[in-house]
Design a protein that fits this description.
globular; about 180 residues; alpha/beta
Length: about 180
């Protein structure tokens, strides 16, 4: 606990120094959404000329959060309420959301847009999950891995005139 308190004190010291800079100085950062639960921290951010932050929301459903190993984050209305706290402290938020998770269904897209709107985000970015062969998102030897190799090979052959020969040793199995 002492280590965490030390890190917190360092953050407050940094923000106190930033607050001494000219008032037309503007900073943006990346932060976890848990910061919204700390009014003292949010006030220090504002005083330090930190006008905005990127928050990796990733997903708005419990299933999606589990897919990205962030099932400790909030979902639904609780997520909306937490994100709104930043705006109540005059901190603009760029919320980053991932589409293409294994649990995504047609209703996921509307739910995500609704959360982004209700949470009063200043900006929202919606990125597509791009799994790479051999990663946790696309395990070697999986059917999805083989299909990704095929799609990649076809793309390379059409765009760059390369052969269809697979080149990624992290993704095993024949191209079928």
């Amino acid at each position: 606990m002492a280590e965490l308190n030390g890190i917190r004190a360092e953050r407050f010291e940094l923000m106190a120094r930033l607050a001494q800079l000219p008032s037309d100085t503007v900073f943006f950062t990346q932060i976890t959404m848990e910061a919204a639960e700390d009014p003292e921290f949010l006030a220090a951010m504002k005083a330090a000329h930190i006008h905005g932050a990127l928050v990796g929301v990733e997903a708005v459903t419990p299933e999606g959060l589990k897919d990205v190993y962030k099932d400790f984050n909030l979902a639904g209305q609780n997520l909306v309420d937490r994100l709104r706290k930043f705006r109540r402290h005059d901190i603009h938020i760029l919320g980053s959301f991932i589409f293409g998770l294994p649990s995504d269904r047609p209703h996921t897209f509307a739910a995500t847009a609704s959360v982004a709107e209700q949470a009063e985000l200043t900006f929202a970015q919606f990125v597509m999950l791009t799994p790479f062969p051999g990663t946790v998102d696309l395990p070697a030897g999986s059917r999805a891995c083989r299909m990704t190799r095929v799609a990649s090979a076809v793309f390379r052959s059409r765009v760059a005139g390369l052969s269809l020969r697979p080149t990624d040793p992290n993704c095993s199995g024949r191209i079928l």
